[in-house]
Amino acid sequence: MVKKEMIAMLLAGGQGSRLGVLTTKVAKPAVSFGGKYRIIDFPLSNCINSGIDTVGVLTQYQPLRLNSHIGIGIPWDLDRNIGGVSVLPPYEKSANTEWYTGTANAIFQNIDYIDSFNPDYVLILSGDHIYKMDYEVMLDFHKENNAAATIAVMPVPWEEASRFGIMITDENRQIVDFEEKPKNPRSNLASMGIYIFNWSVLKAALLANKSQPNLDFGMHVIPYVHENKEPLFAYEFRGYWKDVGTLSSYWEANMELIDLVPEFNLYEEYWKVYTDSKILAPQYVGEKGVAEKSIVGEGSSIYGEIYNSVIGCNVTIEEGAVVRDSIIMNNSTIGADTRINKSVIAEDVVIGSNVVIGVGEEVPNETHPHIYNQGLVCVGEKSVIPNGVTIGKNSVISGITTLEDYPDNTMASGKSLIKVGE
Fold first, then answer.
1. Please, which residues bridge with residue 10 across strands?
2. Which parts of the chain sit beneath pLDDT 50?
3. Which backbone phi and psi does 188 adopt, to 5 degrees?
4. Alpha-carbon distance 211 to 293, whole Å?
5. CA-to-CA distance for 155 and 99, rounded, in angstroms?
6. In this predicted model, what pLDDT tens digit does every residue of 25-54 receive, in sequence order?
7. What is the phi-psi region of residue 348: left when phi exceeds 0, alpha when psi lies from -120 to 50, beta otherwise?
8. SS3 category, 416
9. 3-state class of 139 per DSSP?
């Protein structure tokens, strides 16, 4: 039997509904980030940089782009004969076939996969966070404390602690209690959703709780391990970590990459971030082109001006266009003399000429104010915006739109224009 000390299980099946139209056709871990990457590149790169060569990626929602991006794992050196990367969607069984109904249920349905490597330890990861972390250091901490389970935690501002699962620890960092989104938190150590379990302990907990609806780590598995008096420890992480679960946090994390001294550095030699790079020509800046404090992906042509923006691969910014404080994802085209302010433009979008996006008063979005806010404009993938229209803040557009969709060539702030079936 193959024997691996530790394997990773990467939960990448989430819809990411708080990212709005960015995840209508693609799973959140496959959303573009930082010009050339996808969100899942970060935990995958962490694995290979930490010496973990066996990763199961659990997919479910809209997995097509994620599956083709991961392929057989070549960019991350995970194309191994033994181990490597395996994409693990839900599959039909002879009885009780079901979708993954919770984070721990997804692991439960893949017990046979884990058993095939006979690991001592299993690392549980989420596919939708931006960070660099050496999981080997966390494993050393786990072993030193003879822990049954170790939960990575991060100190958060006390006023934000009620948004998280909070761990209460003693002076040795052993977890004595935990609270899910407490009104009056007793600690500010927030769970990062990164766990190391002794496989024997995790397997027993999964089997004991298998009939729980929506079997979840925070709700079921960790309380079960705690109730059985197994030692639980909190591993404190003090590096950069960002949950890009909302449109505004996703935008902020991209903008932080272009700071003069970025808190999260994509250019470090000793901890590289790997991705599936297409063979593209170099980027090109035309005679009148300006690119200031921006990231520009390969194959992009800048004939207009970009300021403080993250531009993906194969993007065209035509002459006279000005893009500020925005994210333009792969294969999109911005027409001549168009002005774009504080916007997130998804992949394969065509925006006409003489368009103005992101102006006017800030008005709450009419359909999803909890998603489209902070003055951002969001345009879903494969959308088309015609020439000569003006679009206000906190608005969202998805689909192939025409001039008839814009009364007086205008879309007011806070409006939603979603063309069904496109």
1. 57, 125
2. 94, 422
3. -115, 20
4. 53
5. 34
6. 888 888 999 998 989 999 999 999 999 999
7. left
8. strand
9. helix
Full-model pTM? 0.91
* Residue matched to tokens 């302990």: 201
**β-strand partners of 400:** 384
Q: What is the Cα–Cα distance from 140 to 133, expressed in whole angstroms?
A: 13
For the chain, how long is the longest CA-to-CA vector? Answer: 70
How far is it, in rounded angstroms, from Cα 16 to Cα 410?
30
SS3 206: helix
Q: How far does CA 237 lie from the centroid of its chain?
A: 19
How big is the chain, counted in residues?
422
pLDDT tens per residue, range 237-263 = 989 998 888 899 999 999 999 987 788
Give me 44's structure tokens.
């995958």
Amino acid, res. 166: I
Residue whose structure tokens are 């990411």: 16
Q: Are 200 and 179 spatial neighbours (Cβ–Cβ below 8 Å)?
A: no
Residue among 313, 379, 378, 387 at smallest CA distance from 349: 379
Which pLDDT score is estimated for 73? Answer: 75
Say if residues 40 and 29 touch (Cβ distance below 8 Å).
yes
User: Which strand (E) or helix (H) includes residue 106?
Assistant: helix 103-108
Residue 313 CB partners (closer than 8 Å, separation 6+): 35, 36, 278, 280, 297, 298, 299, 300, 330, 331
CA distance 99 to 91: 8
